[in-house]
Amino acid sequence: MPIRAIAFGRSDEFKHPDTIRAGVAEFISTFIFVFAGTGSGLALSKLTNDGPATPTGLMVAAIAHAFALFVAVSISANISGGHVNPAVTLGAFVGEEFTFDEGVGFWNAFVFEIVMTFGLVYTVYATAIDPKRGNLATTAPIAIGFIVGANILVGGAFTGASINPALSIGRVLVSWNITLPNHLVFWTASLIGGAIVGFVYDFLFMNQTYNHLPTSA
Amino acid sequence: MPIRAIAFGRSDEFKHPDTIRAGVAEFISTFIFVFAGTGSGLALSKLTNDGPATPTGLMVAAIAHAFALFVAVSISANISGGHVNPAVTLGAFVGEEFTFDEGVGFWNAFVFEIVMTFGLVYTVYATAIDPKRGNLATTAPIAIGFIVGANILVGGAFTGASINPALSIGRVLVSWNITLPNHLVFWTASLIGGAIVGFVYDFLFMNQTYNHLPTSA
Amino acid sequence: MPIRAIAFGRSDEFKHPDTIRAGVAEFISTFIFVFAGTGSGLALSKLTNDGPATPTGLMVAAIAHAFALFVAVSISANISGGHVNPAVTLGAFVGEEFTFDEGVGFWNAFVFEIVMTFGLVYTVYATAIDPKRGNLATTAPIAIGFIVGANILVGGAFTGASINPALSIGRVLVSWNITLPNHLVFWTASLIGGAIVGFVYDFLFMNQTYNHLPTSA
Amino acid sequence: MPIRAIAFGRSDEFKHPDTIRAGVAEFISTFIFVFAGTGSGLALSKLTNDGPATPTGLMVAAIAHAFALFVAVSISANISGGHVNPAVTLGAFVGEEFTFDEGVGFWNAFVFEIVMTFGLVYTVYATAIDPKRGNLATTAPIAIGFIVGANILVGGAFTGASINPALSIGRVLVSWNITLPNHLVFWTASLIGGAIVGFVYDFLFMNQTYNHLPTSA
């Protein structure tokens, strides 16, 4: 059972033979999410000088990410047979787009990033992975998208002054040439936030059901 | 049956042995909601001087609360086996974040708070607790989150001039050190609003079904 | 069958003995919708001088109405056993809140109101009343709420300059003391829009299924 | 099987005898979508001089299109028995409303349009057409609407400076009298984007299931 916490997904996902198909579907999902998420930040920068650092700019970023992540999770869930594992991947992408504000400080941004990743990954576990999710699985992609939208309304002003206007789509998708320290902060924080959920959820909530219903799907 | 109106939930919730697990899940849900709700108010205060008292500020507060409460209800519903009881808890949190405006007056704010809590708790009863809810239970968490979002667009300008910028996350979660009279107003109003729903819903709508279908789940 | 077009609902609704209970539930639903819808307009008027006549003011009005109507439909659908009949009632309320702009002219406002009511009532028919609605019934309340939100983004600037700041909640709920000509325009237009849907939908789409599946529920 | 990629829908749709009824339902759906989508652009132009080219203007356009397309898909899906084929039709309408910015250049706008149409059509395939879609079909109309909303937050500032204020509803619905080159760009780009999805999805994801489950519906 602890292996599942590390594998970060359901074990039967890896028995699926169509790994290439699932990979293509995941790539398209991620592309659609990054296109809308990062692209809306670029659009704001084009329209205004300080757009992302205003309440309206936060709203645009939040709605763009919430709607696009909801769709990205929906379309990959259907195609790759439930292979919903946006935890690390998308958590990292969300992190990418923010550079932490000088005035906020490294550790504040670090803790914020852990908290926001925790919220995202916990939502994925509770609504999309947990066998006890029931009919709320129908709205799981919406929940996963909207928690990111809600958190951007918080973190957009704190872990960074804004969505980074210097981050072009090409650089995100091709060279990953971002200032290295920021990069490491968000990856590390995302992995820590995700790992905390993995341990908490698996030992506290998952075992509970598996003991009672060992043959459930 | 009247005991159920007081217990403020389904009686079988209390037969569940995993009370600690449910408690942890409820705490995480509440934390995720408060983080986005209160945090978005702090973010607005950081970006602008009077952000929350503008239409855009209201929108940010409404969307942050709506999205985060929807997610908070979704994830606790799944884990604690349907233990959706955000009525008093979350109603109180929503209340906390608003201080009533001097110009509005005590009784206006008091009545507003009762009305808004009534709307929230009634929505919880009708979409998540009522056995007659049918397939609309799927969207119950969305409804619960969105009614709070809609009401913030009303109450944010009336029961208080804004989301209280002086209310830090730490103070909310740790010391609860808020001006006491406001505190009492919102707790009292929330409890009254919740109690009205309990009585109205239970005697008018719940009995109706239980008499006809005594063996239904 | 044509009687159904006039009765404006499903015939079995009227066989339900608990008419008083359904009436109370409908009243609460309508109250919650009007509170958020009209109240958000009042909030905008308090915060800004011309709030409702700005793009942000339109957004606040659209989101408040969309979220609140979605919730209002959800909670009445569950309690009164599917008694979703917001067609005339809510269409009229939406109309109330707008006064038509002098520059737009009577007939333009009249046609706009018919078109917007048509969209609302058609959505109610297609997603909540039509027996062929299938599993999209789950999201019917969201669709009903959101089409009103979308149309407010259009009509808020045309059929009236704004949400009427002079329309207090008390006057809406108690005296209905609104300038009579406006009142008549919106009631008449709403009834025409609703009637068009009733005829179109019933003869074109409803009969089709009833002929093939006379014993369907 | 490749014929399905060209027919751009499910083959059994064409066996449905009620083609006229389906046509009327599709027309009403499209009308409701264009009314809110184009109309919100006109409303912005009335309220402000450069509304659509501001972040708030983008938000209004995004929410109006997202909500209206969600509803348009919902109501046509129910009536015409699952005849959800907004791919070319709606993709083209979305394209219509934007004129590409001089500063962006022909090829950038062209590629943007292909990418955005790809996202829309892919979402339609994955959530509404694919037999493997499961219970996520319930939220398919929301996903289809929201991906357009998210992409407008990106493309509204790039493929055109704004929603074209000169595009009156009458011209859209009656004469289609738009500057021809723009017209051709968006139609061509939309068809290319849609065709790419048709090939990718059909050969990569559809065959997979049909081989294993040849008798599935």
TrEMBL record, chains A, B, C, D:
Transmembrane feature ranges: 20-44, 56-77, 106-128, 140-164, 184-204
PANTHER family registered for this protein in UniProt: AQUAPORIN-8 (PTHR45665), MAJOR INTRINSIC PROTEIN (PTHR45665:SF55)
UniProt-annotated location(s): Membrane
A Pfam family the protein falls into: MIP
Family annotation (Gene3D superfamilies): Glycerol uptake facilitator protein
UniProt membrane topology term: Multi-pass membrane protein
Protein name as catalogued: Aquaporin
Molecular function as annotated in GO: water channel activity
Family the UniProt entry places it in: Belongs to the MIP/aquaporin (TC 1.A.8) family.
InterPro entries, alphabetized: Aquaporin-like, Aquaporin_transptr, MIP, MIP_CS
GO CC list: plant-type vacuole membrane
Keywords, comma-separated and alphabetical: Membrane, Transmembrane, Transmembrane helix, Transport
